[in-house]
Structure formats: C-alpha cells, structure tokens
Amino acid sequence: MALLAAVAFLWATPFLWTLVASFRPEGAGSVNMASLAPDTPQTLDNFRNALESGAFGLYYVNTIIVVLGLPGVPPGFRATQGQWGIVHLSAW
Q1: FRET label pair with 63: which of 5, 27, 32, 48, CA 20 to 30 Å apart?
Q2: What torsion do the CA atoms of 21, 26, 30, 32 make, to the nearest 10 degrees?
Q3: Sign (positive/negative) of CA torsion 25, 30, 32, 36?
C-alpha cells in the first residue's frame, strides 16, 4: 500500500505543480518556483489572458459541428467533414 501511495504522489506532483503555477502572477518570475505552497499572492489573470487571447467560441462551434455531425456520416467521409467545419467557420 505504501508503494502505491508513493507512486500516486509521484504521478500527481507534476499536475499539482502545474495547477499551482497557473495561479502565479506573471511578474513572479522564478521566485519560489519549486514550491507547491508559494508565498506570492495567487491570481486568475493567466486564465483571463488565455480566454481573451484565443478564439474559443470558434473552437467550440467547430467541436460541436464535428461531434454532432460524425454519427450520421459514413466512416470514409468523417475526416473530410471535420476539415469542412474548420475551414468554413474560420471566416467568422
């Protein structure tokens, strides 16, 4: 059981570190970067910047077209249907 707990901790540590790092302010640099409990104040600015800089609405519409359209399309045409959604909606 101890081995399983150790492996689970080793597996989860990079994910936890990435989650903690995503809340770090942009100006924090590499100060206390290896800590899972940093001293710097945590902020949501990184998430706000990511959502504002990408065209997530377009990505979601393309995903819906591909996902909802695939069940009714024969297997040989599925790849071209996904390309159709991306190409024709990129003009938005």
Answers
A1: 48
A2: -60
A3: positive
Torsion of CA 25, 27, 29, 34, to 10 degrees: -20
Cα dihedral sign, 36-39-43-45: negative
pTM, two decimal places? 0.51
pLDDT in tens, 34-71: 677 777 778 888 888 888 888 888 888 888 887 877 66
Q: Is the pLDDT of residue 32 over 90?
A: no
For 84, which DSSP code?
H
Torsion of CA 43, 48, 53, 58, to 10 degrees: 150
How far apart, in whole angstroms, are the C-alpha atoms of residue 55 and residue 83?
A: 17
Q: What angle do CA 5, 11, 14 make, to 5 degrees?
A: 130
Which among 69, 88, 89, 92 is positioned nearest to 79, based on CA atoms?
69
